[in-house]
Amino acid sequence: MPNTTTLSSFTEQHKMALVSCIEMVLMMRGNANYHLIVARLNSLYNCSILDCCDHPDYLLTVLKEVYPEEYDSILDEIRSHLDELANEKDVTEFFRVMEN
């Protein structure tokens, strides 16, 4: 049974920026794996990447499944694209869950 950690403190702007960065980083790593991640999120949790802002543990599980060796570098890349936004409280909490 997956951990259902929920983050409800996201501002709408931060959520959109985070989702955009996640999607961009994943698409740059390959269209096939991006679609695999989207499909796995949907089949396992009935959710999208947008929903993962509130449930980062879902994304954590699927990313580690699809990218077991590249998981940490993907997180670093997402964080670098967020730039200063990565230091905002809601985004920091997202990465705290993702790094467990």
Q: How would you describe this structure to a colleague?
A:
By secondary structure, the chain is an all-alpha fold. The chain has one domain (12-98): Non-ribosomal Peptide Synthetase Peptidyl Carrier Protein, Chain A (Orthogonal Bundle), CATH 1.10.1200. It is 65% helix and 0% strand. Mean pLDDT is 89; it is low at 1-8.
Fold blueprint:
Elements: H1 12-28, H2 31-45, H3 56-66, H4 71-82, H5 89-98
> What is the highest CATH level, the class?
Mainly Alpha
User: What's the count of strands?
Assistant: 0
Whole-number mean pLDDT: 89
Our Rg estimate from Cα atoms comes to 12 Å
Element string (H = helix, E = strand): HHHHH
The CATH topology annotation reads as: Non-ribosomal Peptide Synthetase Peptidyl Carrier Protein, Chain A
Percentage of helical residues?
55-70%
Broad shape: globular
Ranges where pLDDT stays below 50 over 5 or more residues in a row are: 1-8
Task: Determine the N-to-C terminus distance.
Answer: 16 Å
Give the amount of beta strand, in percent.
under 5%
Taking the sheet with the most strands, its summary is:
none
Task: Give the helix/strand class.
Answer: mainly alpha
The tally of structural domains comes to: 1
Number of helices: 5
**CATH architecture heading:** Orthogonal Bundle
